[in-house]
Amino acid sequence: MSSITSGLHHVTAIGGNPQKNIDFYIRGMGLRLVKKTVNFDDSKTYHLYYGDTAGSPGSLMTFFPWNGVPQGTIGSGQSTTTAFSVPQGSIGWWKRHFSDLGIESSAVEVSPDEERLSLRDPDGLQLDLVASSIADPRDPWDSASVPAEYAIRGQHSSVLTVADPAGTVSVLTHDLGLKLISETPGRFRFAAGEGAAGGIVDVVADSSAPVGLTAGGTVHHIAFRAPDAAAQLQWRDELLDRGLQVTQVLDRQYFTSIYFREPGGVLFEIATDTPGFDIDEPLLELGRGLKLPPWLEPSREMIERSVAKITVPEENNPSFAAPQA
After folding, report:
1. 103 with 28: CB under 8 angstroms?
2. 13 and 21 in contact (C-beta within 8 Å)?
3. Sign of the torsion angle spanned by Cα atoms 269, 274, 278, 283
4. How many of the other CB atoms lie within 10 Å of CB of 56?
5. Does residue 145 contact residue 22 with C-beta atoms inside 8 Å?
6. What angle do CA 304, 64, 169 make, to 5 degrees?
7. pTM for the complete prediction?
8. Across-strand partners of 13?
9. Each residue's pLDDT expressed in tens, for the chain with a length of 325 residues
């Protein structure tokens, strides 16, 4: 493969009540809502993007939140855990933070170099916070709920659970250019480049896992980074040559995308790093207004009547000052 991804671009999941989703990811996880738009294929539903200050590729978690969505099944053929990178020594702070919010979490030391805090979001999505001995230099969003010294730096890794790992491993290594960096029985860790946070994919081989059902509380797809449209088209051509079914290039307004399902059943996306989230609102105002692509703008009045009423906490605004203790 002549193109090599630099890591994860975003993870997209299915949520339920959009207000609960916003409150959890802004106040609980300390992320910034960087775009409030709609699902381009179902404009009655929001598409909410969370990330760092600018919504940098590799920091992003996105949701399609449907009120009343049935509960999905986390299992084989899915990304079963989404992990975020936090500073070394911060796990204790995060555990107290979640306890204060009434959210259960459990800390696990995976290895001497990596400590994890596991929890679930309001819809049951499995999340981990990972504190690694390898420093993550990315700048975080400094929120009123989560100070910068403890804050999420971006995506750390995604766990893919598959019944038979062979095809998945082939796509990750041959087609995406990831390297195997560690292996334990039934679990393989792949990484882009030198294995820094944001470029890691763990593959778990579990033939006994239930088949995943994509609905509430599950990941819809994971996206890998392409630097630009030319690299994305090159990927598409080579994936098609390998016999994979790949979509046309789709305009997602803030990036372009192609999608394909890898042999283990997980839906993959390759998304461009550009143009970014400040093309339709200033950096300081990200997430404030409902933003629509040009082809949906004529239907704005109908869409605004259709989507649920939500309130974005003031702390999503960079000018918001938290009360002094």
Report:
1. yes
2. no
3. positive
4. 18
5. no
6. 155
7. 0.96
8. 63, 219
9. 456 899 999 999 999 999 999 999 999 999 999 999 999 999 999 999 999 999 999 999 999 999 999 999 999 999 999 999 999 999 999 999 999 999 999 998 777 889 999 999 999 999 999 999 999 999 999 999 999 999 999 999 999 999 999 999 999 999 999 999 999 999 999 999 888 999 999 999 999 999 999 999 999 999 999 999 999 999 999 999 999 999 999 999 999 999 999 999 999 999 999 999 999 999 999 999 999 999 999 999 999 999 999 999 999 988 765 544 4
CA 169, 229, 277, 44: dihedral to nearest 10 degrees?
A: -80
Residue written as tokens 């970014």?
Answer: 276
Quote the tokens at residue 73: 């099944």
Contacts of 324 (CB under 8 A, 6+ apart): none
Q: Is the dihedral of CA 281, 282, 283, 289 positive or negative?
A: negative
Residue with tokens 């975003």: 10
Q: What contacts 175, CB < 8 A, 6 or more positions away? A: 1, 235, 238, 239, 242, 244
For residue 262 the two structure tokens come to: 């890898």
